[in-house]
Amino acid sequence: MVELPEGRTWDMIVFDVDGTLMDAEGYHPDLIPLIREVEARGLPISLASGRTLPNVTPIKQSLGVTGFIVAENGGMVWDSNEGHEIMALADGSRAKAAAQWLATQIDGFDPAGIESNRWRETEWCLFEKEDEDLMRELLADTEWSDLIVVPTGFAIHICAPGIDKAGGLRLALEQRGVKPERVIVCGDAPNDVSMFDLCGFSVAVNDARSSVVERADCLTEARGTEGSLELLRAVIAIL
């Protein structure tokens, strides 16, 4: 069971999407009622995802949350509820070029990557089956040596240096006037760890990667989307 720190007050919860709020079957049937209960009690919920902004926006709308969106692993930030403009924090053309070059070096490598690349602005994503370690090794001696290769459990992202979920989240929180130490963050993958380090309390819902669990303040008893329900119920209990 999630045990939140005693004597603390919170201004926001930030959730990763895939593997945390959603899985291959979509939303858990208990998710939306719990999220709306948290929002009704005055605690806004935001989303931070590796998905593109056009992918995450309808998810935000369907959940009915009043927070912001951090998309493309921190590369895109949009707080429509507060009237802010969409911000793109990197140029993804170099990441795409790096993927195309890797295809000339690795047999069977698919540079087109995942379908949502058509909407990506700040990074490029390859299928999870690609060899991330070999990608890093080959890029290390190229003009793209500064790019970061990040696995998420759903894809392998090639990202610009300095772009991660924590960076996008920090900017979005500044726009809202919310201090990171007053934020609860929930995720399941390596690309969520930077947010764990930034925020006041972090919750992991997947124990498949020890590096993720070690950096979280709490691991839910349930896993995946049911772990997120566990967190939401714990938050409701203290509001």
List the helices and strands and how they pair.
Blueprint: E1 12-15, E2 22-23, E3 26-27, H1 31-40, E4 45-48, H2 53-63, E5 69-71, E6 76-78, E7 87-88, H3 93-102, E8 123-126, H4 132-139, E9 148-151, E10 156-159, H5 165-176, E11 183-187, H6 193-198, E12 201-204, H7 210-215, E13 218-219, H8 225-238
Parallel strand pairs: 1-4, 1-11, 4-5, 11-12, 12-13
Antiparallel strand pairs: 2-3, 5-6, 6-7, 8-10, 9-10
Helix pairs in contact: 1-8
Short recap of the structure:
By secondary structure, this protein is of the alpha/beta class. It is 32% helix and 18% strand.
Report on this model:
This protein has 239 residues and is α/β, with parallel strands linked by helices. It folds into 2 domains: 12-88 and 163-238, Rossmann fold (3-Layer(aba) Sandwich); 93-159, Alpha-Beta Complex (Hypothetical Protein Ta0175, Chain: A, domain 2), CATH 3.90.1070. Helix content is 32%, strand content 18%. It has helices spanning 31-40, 53-63, 93-102, 132-139, 165-176, 193-198, 210-215, 225-238, and strands at residues 12-15, 22-23, 26-27, 45-48, 69-71, 76-78, 87-88, 123-126, 148-151, 156-159, 183-187, 201-204, 218-219. Strands 7-6-5-4-1-11-12-13 form an 8-stranded mixed beta sheet, with helices on both faces. It has a 3-stranded antiparallel beta sheet with strand order 8-10-9, with helices on one face. The longest helix has 14 residues, at 225-238. It starts with 11 loop residues before the first strand and ends with a helix. The mean pLDDT is 96.
